[in-house]
Design brief:
By secondary structure, the chain is mainly α. The protein contains 14 helices and no strands. It has a single domain, classed as Tetracycline Repressor, domain 2 (Orthogonal Bundle).
Amino acid sequence: MCTDVVLKQIHDNTSRFGCRGRQRSACRSDWSGKRYMAARRTGIKPNMDVSEPIRKALADMNSFVEAFNWDAVSDRRVHILKVFLRLAAAQGYSAVTMRSLALELNLKAPSIYSHFPGGKEEIISYSLRWQARVFGLEVLNGTISAGDPDTFFDLLVRLHCRTNLLNRENYLWDMIVASDRIGKFLPIELRNEMHSWLEICIQVYVAAGEALGLHDCRLSARQAFASIDAVHSWADWDGSESSLERILDEATVLCRTIMVPTGSKRPSAPRRVK
């Protein structure tokens, strides 16, 4: 498939994740509203038009996403989860109390317990699982149209990068899980579960590399995944769609540079048609 055709397919497939003509705050409102609520949907089918490694990785991701029943999670409970994530990332998990959370929500602490009888541990468990589900559904939905490994790889990287830039809860999730590696403050079962989820996400990158014909690419897949998780540290997004598209192109080139060995015949990331 020629570069221009691949490029058009990538941008057609990924354009629905954008917010053309709007600034950063407006873009992010999609995540805090209907897009975030859409994470309750289930029944996503793993892509059947790509290679076996990718199908297997997406099937594992789909199994994790559908492991919990979120039908009973009301909008009010989701709001509590999001505020808790923000406070925990800003103040540290240990510093957040039910009292401080209630103050931030302008509620009384007993009313929060009515939503989450298990208190803070139940809230952090729901928060991290919910955000993992949001990201998983975005990947499953966003790559379903990929018809070949190259398109899948580019869609995956662009989607991951765009999600980290637009969805601040995804970034907060990363901060909390990373902090737990040092502080060990999360319940052990939850920590192990989130580490398993990270392995599932990394395996999607590994599978994408294997589908491109790469061997022993786990280390480079982890490096690529970590680079996109850290997009805030190297990308200066000004809030515009043009700036966002430039960053997504840079992210795709970066990941291909990391994962595809020098001298490989695999094509480099396609450039956007002006």
